[in-house]
Sequence to fold (859 residues):
Amino acid sequence: MGRASVIDAGIEVLTECEAGEFRTLLVEGPAGCGKSAVVDVLADLARTAGAVVLGAVGSPAEREAPLGVLRQMVCSDPAVAQPSLTADPDRAARTEAMRDFSLQLRELAEDGLVLLYVDDAQYADDLSVQYLQYLARHARTSRVLLLVAVSPYTGRYPELATELMRQPGSRRFRIGCLSPDETAEAAGRPLPGEHLHAVTGGNPLLLRALLAEPTGLGEGSLLEEPASERGGPFSQAVVTCVQRSGPTAPVVALAAAVLDEFSSPELVQRLLGIAPASVDRDLAALRAAGLLTGARFRHRAARTAVLDGASGHRRAALHRRAALLLDRDGMAATAAAGQLLAAATHAGDVPWHATQAETDVLREAAEDLLSRDEARQAVRILELAVEVCPDERQRAAVRIRLARLSWRFSPAATERRLADLLSGPHPGIEHAQPLVQLLLTHGRVPDAARLLDGQDPAAAGASLVDTAFATGTAGVERLLQETRLTDATVEPITQALRSLVHSDHPERAVPWLRNLVREAELRDAPGWSAVFASLHAETLLRMGDLRGACTHAQAALDHLPERTGCSFRFAPTAVLVRARTLMGESTEAARLVDQPGPRHLFSGMYGLGFLRARGLHLLACQQPQAALADFMEIGHLMEQWGVDRPALLPWRTDAAEALLRLGHTQRAEQLVLQQMALPDARRPWVRGVSLRMRALTSSSAKQRVVLLTQAVDELHRSGDRLEAARAMAELGQAMQSEGTAPAKGSALIRTAWNLARECEAGTLCREILPDAPLSDAQTDPALREPDASRSAARLSTSEQRVATLAAQGLTNREISAKLYLTVSTVEQHLTRVYRKLQISCRGELPVNLAMGSGRPVDW
Fold:
């Protein structure tokens, strides 16, 4: 019933009472819905009409004070002689006092209407209630109106209401919350009533408080942000409604707020351990006040207000109990873990040691979240598990899991967590192996060796490189096809890709890396994106795509949230240094080189890669002595760690080149011969760079031609276009020096120069032909390629494939093996190519046929 209707009915009752009849008016309603407003209006009307008005307001604080409400009532009008009151424990004396009180009021009513009102009568003390009940039974012919406002869900409501309603002339009205339309009308603003009703439940007190919020209300944002400041008018009104809904309503409301979406009468009762009837009564009161729907808060702003009103210690305790309650009921582990996260937030400085059940909940929830790719929340949960787990061994397992998971977002975070693990107690035999594997994946060979009870680093390093090179290309691609990217598989996938990058077919890694970078970005995994982009950059550098290598290396750096303190940064930075150096951008390369980090960052494979890039840059800047120091440091560490694999870092041939520039040919030759004796020398790329340096250390021109010819063949097979161009140029120069085939030598030099130019390797172009201009407009016609666009357009796809490989220096037999054609078919294709391009030999073939055609060569 609306407040206005109750007031109209109250006026009728006042009129009836003035005619000489005792009346009782009972106004019921939940907290905040306007009972007090009705009482105030009727009291004012009675005063205006000349009535004597005596009133009181019940309070929980005065509930135990005998005659507290009645004394407040008779003292409310100083102009009226106060009736006598007594709290004498003697029953007969008390009855006599009640009779005197009733008589005095009836005498007062002989001169006019007397209005007695009690607001919040549910908090009235027992003795006052007895006085009022006696009055109702013995003042039936007096002009007295007893107005009682009460909440039907609290205190002595049933007893008081029953007694009053037994009397003739009693009227009873119930006030409820407003409807959406009434809410909009009451707001007096052009705001959607259903939105206001969604926040306030139609409770007038909450509505007024919401409209009074200083932040203001925007029509579009009302549902998203109910404009409630913490501690503001709306929050205060919510707390008032809860407190006035019953003595146990605050704790029931807090339990419902803690349980949130899982709140139900049964769970609230079990969480608090109080009687079901009490819980049901309080939930009904909170629903009637517009705060709840079922057993859940109608709006998060009201829930927040209730939670904010509780102490942190009390909230933490309830959240922990709720977590175990939800877990026992078979709810999702994430729900229970959310409760534990909330408990940790509000525990403050109070020490908290999780029980075994709580630890199990956190770990299970983290794995559940990971299965749904919600890794950031899983990290938060595991961080809490590390903080509160009392068992050192269990904590070690969680920290290892957390270190692996952190890689998804930040390699630097993983490195910090690994450092914490290494600085703490030994994780135990059962956890040592996973930690060692994680360390090796991140190139931390010495740390892995120290963890294995002081094992020789060479043994740990051998494990690392054996993993990287044990699987052939077919096996690696099968693993990549069958394995989905997850936190558990990112390590083997990364190892497989590294193996592919260092294989004889690095180009096969490109599509995998491109797809993995895209997937990592879509899944909000910047750490993975950085790793895969860095490997992509390294692959393109190996293939001679310097511009692409720079783009992807910079993308890898951009994915890293930290700008310093991360050894992984050395990986993409090394690619940038090498690519910028080869492109002739020495200033930018020098800037990247001059960013040294702390010494400990170099104690891993990423640091060794950066040292090699720095050494190659110093070599290009004519500083062979400084470059040699870097190369020898790499060699010392690789031998010490057991990772001395030229397929990873060919430090011997790098050092040999520096030694040659310093005039130490014999020492250079020794290093080259050592590298050629290693197992990796059977791999085309290692054999190619080794043969090239062996040729440069040879004093025989004829032997140089033989060695460089072999080097060119091996490097073409490896897919490294820049090393192939370098070897081709040196082969051409050796042929010219020998004097047996100067024309062929000149053609090879021209082909090498054009290949280097196609890769945008300006530094290498200047090494091959120092005086040749690099711009198209200035290029000498003798060096310029035939119009590839026009030429390739006339070639079939098969002819284009054969011509491209032939231009790169592959023999007919090698082309036949690579394209699965017979040697005779290759010869026929080349004959047609020569005729269409109007050239006479393979030395005149343009190297940029695929680029000029505008269509890719499908290998």
In short: The radius of gyration is 44 Å. The CA atoms of residues 320 and 518 lie 40 Å apart.
